[in-house]
Design a protein that fits this description.
Rossmann fold, Arc Repressor Mutant, subunit A, 2 domains
Length: 225
């Protein structure tokens, strides 16, 4: 499991990071809400752990911003604020669970596992749609505005990844790791070639382009201009 921890207390962060790593998880850490936002938007995480009282941007504002950006990553709030109203406020902000400090590490692990199981069940979707572009994951078919598009296997995998992150900037590193399973830069133009081929298939002949290059950052798939 890849986890993002957004926690400003150094002692608490060190305790959680040590325990999660010993449990076999990969964890990134941000010490304030602003860095947490950037990490959450730039990387794929299975779960976020977010403290409520953070510098730069408080935890609830961070969660609300992520949800407004259509980020559906499960979020567990950690907070010393323990009243019923505090927990309700956290859940209404978009969190999936709320754990009060101090906490037992075993309970933290159990709650993270529960969130992951729930996310796996919710993600058992068979169709992806962005605007008039539709992907059938079972039939491995693609159509736009009712027109069938023929994609090669790697192009299909690339499109699926872009559609799962529709509206977000997807970096070259993200594509290398998640579409090609590379954890290094092969120093080739493999991404450019496949993006160009995919763009010609999903955009050529249609009024509105959907696959955009974000100069210096990566690519974004979105409906409309």
């Amino acid at each position: 499991m890849r986890i993002l921890l957004v926690e400003d207390d150094a002692g608490t962060a060190a305790y959680i990071i040590k325990g999660l790593k010993e449990s076999g998880h990969v964890i990134d850490h941000a010490a304030d809400g602003r860095d947490g936002w950037h990490l959450a938007r730039e990387n794929d995480y299975d779960v976020l752990i977010v403290d409520r009282m953070l510098p730069a941007q408080d935890g609830l504002s961070l969660i609300q911003a992520l949800r407004a950006a259509s980020d559906k990553t499960p979020i567990l709030v950690l907070s010393a604020l323990a009243e019923v109203g505090d927990r309700v406020e956290g859940l209404r902000a978009g969190a999936d669970d709320y754990l009060v400090k101090p906490f037992a590490f075993a309970e933290l692990l159990a709650r993270l596992d529960a969130l992951l199981r729930r996310a796996d069940a919710d993600s058992a979707e068979t169709t992806l749609c962005v605007g008039d572009l539709k992907v059938d994951l079972l039939a491995r078919s693609v159509e736009r505005a009712g027109k069938r598009l023929d994609l090669q296997p790697r192009e299909f995998r690339l499109l699926e990844y872009l559609m799962r992150h529709a509206g977000q900037v997807v970096t070259r590193t993200m594509l290398l790791e998640n579409v090609w399973d590379y954890h290094f830069d092969p120093q080739t133009n493999v991404i450019d070639v496949h993006v160009s081929r995919l763009r010609s298939k999903i955009d050529k002949g249609f009024d509105t382009p959907m696959l955009h290059t974000v100069r210096g950052a990566g690519y974004r798939l979105k409906a409309g201009d």
